[in-house]
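Deliverable D5.2: sample structural annotation.
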Amino acid sequence: MALDPATYLDRFVDESLSGGERKRVELASILVMRPRLLVADEPDSGIDVEALRRMFDLFDTLREQKATVLLVTHSSEVLKHADHATLICCGRTIEAGPAEEIQHYFEDRCIPCPFHDAREVTQA
């Protein structure tokens, strides 16, 4: 569902828009700025499936425009849309490489996480 400008001209983003509408306004404002770098922290948090699909489309558009998209996520679904990934646990880099390889590492070795106790990582 696209944003109809006439519907939103007299509304404040922080007061009268739903979470999904706010996310679409954010996405539109990002695209208009044509950033060279986008940092998205947990981009799938609090949005519906349609907004998430549009967000992935935005990331693809930005990459086509030669922008860098940096995603911070705990979601294997979001990871599927990355080219390269770094798995960080308790502030320590565990693995880095193509996203598909990190996806397998994450799914096969991190869940359940052998570093669930931060003391194990700091002592290693």
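Annotation notes: The two ends are 49 Å apart (CA to CA). The CA atoms of residues 36 and 53 lie 21 Å apart.
The annotation will be released with the project's public dataset once the embargo ends.
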